[in-house]
Write a structure and sequence with these properties.
Elements lengths: L9 E3 L4 E3 L6 H8 L2 E2 L17 H11 L9
Antiparallel strand pairs: 1-2, 1-3
Length: 74
């Protein structure tokens, strides 16, 4: 979740965002990571998110990145 007040310290990458500490050198991060600034007042939350993952896709992600043996409890 990114609040509007976080937008002033948030940078955007191809597939994700990073909220920097308030004393970070934002220009250094932008250049080093080839990132871009978000628009002041930008927010990202469940109400504004347009990309959703269904149960099967979430289970596949857990198996891929966390536990290859994952099986949900019934």
């Amino acid at each position: 979740m990114i609040t509007e007040s976080d937008s002033y310290n948030t940078i955007e990458f191809d597939r994700y965002y990073a909220i920097l500490p308030s004393d970070a050198k934002k220009e250094k991060y932008l250049k080093h990571f080839n990132a871009s600034e978000v628009t002041p007042g930008f927010k990202y939350n469940s109400g504004t998110n347009t990309e959703w993952v269904d149960e099967d896709a979430l289970r596949a992600l857990i198996r891929q990145y966390v536990d290859p043996e994952f099986e949900p409890r019934v």
